[in-house]
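In these records, each integer encodes one residue's backbone shape. Here is one protein:

___
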Amino acid sequence: MTRTVFVTGARGKTGREVVAQLVERGDTEVRGGSSRSPQAPTTVPFDWRDQATWSKAVDGADAIYLGRPDVQDSPELVRQLIAAAPDAHIVLVSEQGAERVAADGWVQRVEAAVTGTASRWTILRPSWFQQVLTDPRYFLDAIRTERVISLATDGAPIAWVDTRDIAAVAVRAIADPATHHGKAYTVTGPEAVTTADIAADISAAIGAEVTAVVPPLSEALAGAPPWLADVVGGMFGRVHDGTFAMVDDTVERVTGTPPRTIKQFIAEHADQWR
């Protein structure tokens, strides 16, 4: 029997990988939600700010891969979307260490919107995505043109994870909701590395020196609205206290395949920084 899965953020870092892996399975009707013009047969219109797009996207969905919208009222939007598909298994992408955030904090309220509303749910709490290193909105251009990687980590290591591995865990949860219902999984790479380690590995891969820069946290928070500054500040706080350095075996335990290392990712994408 073919199952129907709706994927929010189908063009996002994890969403596009979930779509690709579900399509590859061949036993799923995939609906990839996007607010931009569809460019693939699997894409359906979906806009968090336009509830008229929701019903067609979630109608009859057995599961929803839910990338939380990064807006202040995300908890309420998530709750409303789940209410529109009350029987769907929700797989939420949260963030590592979310269980350490105050119950009234944005991160925990998004998770509570899922666990308190969905009939079946799985939560993924990934570490930082390796793919931000090749994203022009984050580090790609600075590495390629300025030969720097700037991150306010104060030298603390992070167990960076490949979004393909996050997606693999998500697809297993979607395919087997009975096994994964009620589980919250921390999803990390196999080792924690510092920004200096990453700079050294990229330098070796491209044959040009890349320098790690540690700006003050205030620079990362500059101009952010108070709610977002609180969320980002809390995330960096968990980097500094070692939360994001914790390595978990979820990827191998759930999928049977070891997670990709940051060195593998750098070797695979070196041409993008040259």
